[in-house]
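Final report, closing paragraph on structural work. Over the funding period we assembled a curated collection of sequence-structure pairs, and we close with a single example.
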Amino acid sequence: MRAQVHSEFSGKVVLVTGAGRGSGRAIAQAFAELGAAVAANDLTPINLDQTVSDITAAGGKTQGYVYDVAKRMPVQAMVDQVLQDWGRIDVLVNSARVIPKASIIDMGEWDWQRTNDVNLSGPLFTTQSASRVMRRQGGGVIINVVCDGGFRDHAAYVASRTGLIGLTRAAAEEFTAENIRVHAVCSSDLMKESTSLCNEHESLKRRYLKNINLEHFGRMANMVGLVLFLSNNAAAHITGQVLHIDQDPKDFTNLT
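Its predicted structure, as stored:
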């Protein structure tokens, strides 16, 4: 199975936003391991440099792109640069996100706006730019990574997450004729971003663990594996799916 996937991703170009850490880094490394050229994006150069260094040291092909995905013009500039460097974009993975800690009553305008700019407007802008490239190529895959569980008190994040799921479904329907598949992968396994927050707030940690059907933080590999599957030809006839990893089925209706 690994050899077959490797053969398929060889020569493909994958753009991963939020690749400087957590799920974005894990996804970027996985695609590179399977032979893809990875265009790794993040706003923090030091984190992105580490991702690029790790992939390069392992023999993978990658290049870093420091752009703010929350703004339309930088996104278009990034896509143009990726095309100049690699010539195509076959897969877009939107993994960049921010999760503010402020409650509704204490949240400032900047926290609300920045969260929705990064988590919702960012995927819109990258989808717009990348889909134009994919349309010219004859198709492609767009996957939006959503962190589930433990954030119900974080109104800005919950609002942006819900909006991103809606955007995923709308884009999948709109792009069907263009042979562009669009999915959302929702996972409680994104513990790289959430573990430190949970350790600081024991009550949040208890809610997080209650929302998954394991008594410990799940493995990032589950989510990464699903992203890889949805990106390859085995999933060529699947689009518009919002797929939850390790989430308790009784809780699905509260998340979508």
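The chain has one domain: 2-254. The CA atoms of residues 14 and 91 lie 5 Å apart. We thank the funder for supporting this effort.
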